[in-house]
Amino acid sequence: MHAVLATEPGGPDVLRLTDVPDPEPGPGEVLIDVAASAVNRADLLQRQGFYPPPEGVSDVPGLECSGVVAEVGEGVTTYAVGDPVCALLAGGGYATRVTVPVGQVMPIPEGVDLVTAASLPEVACTVWSNVFMVAGLRAQETFLVHGGAGGIGTMAIQLAAAYGARVAATAGSPEKLLTCRELGAELAIDYREQDFVAEVKALGGADVILDNMGAKYLGRNVDALATEGRLVVIGMQGGTKGELDLGRLLAKRGAVIATSLRSRPAEDKAAICAAVVEHVWPLVADGRVRPMIHASYPLAQAARAHTVLEESSHVGKVLLTTRS
User: Cα 231–268–164 angle (5° rounding)?
Assistant: First the structure.
């Protein structure tokens, strides 16, 4: 089969399309003929040598895919050869075939085409698990997401709004701010020109913050929390080491939670995927939550797709397709 690999740690130019042996499904696994995958920030870190795959996982990048079931392993009864599916992966998505534990395979939401479905697993699972399962966002609460026009952000805005939260989002251009508003953000904050802490405090503070910046925003995120607010950190684009004023956190009876999806046990991922199918897929099917696709590139142009993500010029997801 064909797969994209990094020849060495480095820039997008180290990505090469090459031939590798076909994977075979083990017990409880599904083999998928991949139609498309999507590019995530974690893929960029892996290419740079900063985020190696978990032990036993393919060196091929790619944390999600869509496609058709090609083969099922021993004990798999929920899917059959020929079924259209999408899946949450620990790696391996930048390829024409991938194996995945059956618990991380999901049906494609009604009304979504096979390629577009590749944009959904990672963002839906990340947002649902962190914002709703971990932080417990409720209707009428205020929710802040940083990077509102990216893949995670566009899903987070839509889901929080659909479940009745008051949504604020940060973004860095007029186009991206408009997208945030169109998707359901009551407050769209230009982080280049505005102080998001002051803007969110004017709403009474944020009950839940979803943050991909890490250290750079840690202190300000705590300042922006409402009483009993919950800050969930899922990324480190702004560094790994920050200073936390415990006095401010204690005064707010707040919580700072750091989570990662990729390294969770398979049973945890299966539970998250099941919750997404139950709670998110119906919203996608009825149009209240829609996939956001910025661009699609052939698998051989993975370097170009990585460059687009690094430039942060995208709105929504960037896909890699295996089919012309």
Answer: 45
